[in-house]
Amino acid sequence: MALPKYKELKEKFIQIxxxxxxxxxxxxxxxxxxxxxxxxxxxxxxxxxxxxxxxLRANKLLAAAGVWFTNPVTFIPIYYSAYVTxxxxxxxxxxxxxxxTTLMNSFTTEKLMQLGGKTLMPLIIGCIILGLICATITYxxxxxxxxxxxxxxxxFSVDLQSGGRL
Length: 166
What we know:
By secondary structure, this protein is an all-alpha fold. The protein has one domain (29-152). Helix content is 70%, strand content 0%. The chain contains 9 helices and no strands.
């Protein structure tokens, strides 16, 4: 699978900016997706993100897309970073990256219950902390980019003069 080119990404972003929603709604949707994407509930992240976006009147499409930040390629480094972060706040005897990778690749509820507080509590704490940090950064970056793009695009300049969506 080829990676999308810069031009394609730029066009997709402009399409997002052209949505008939406020910049806040778009940024909040992206932030919700990232926040939920960091949580250790793979498989049900979208079913959490979309209703949360609905309740908070955020962009549902970006909330759903944001959870894909954690995927089969990225989830081990993300969750291990969260686990290590969690051990700073919930001190336990840490496990190595190799042990963590083995645990996550052969993940079962039974195995998780056996390890319990040694991995689960630090993982949850770290996921919440890193998720909130990354979601906050995502919100402000996307908000800035949407406002900047709308300001510099002719399509929005007419709309802005008549009380646009910024």
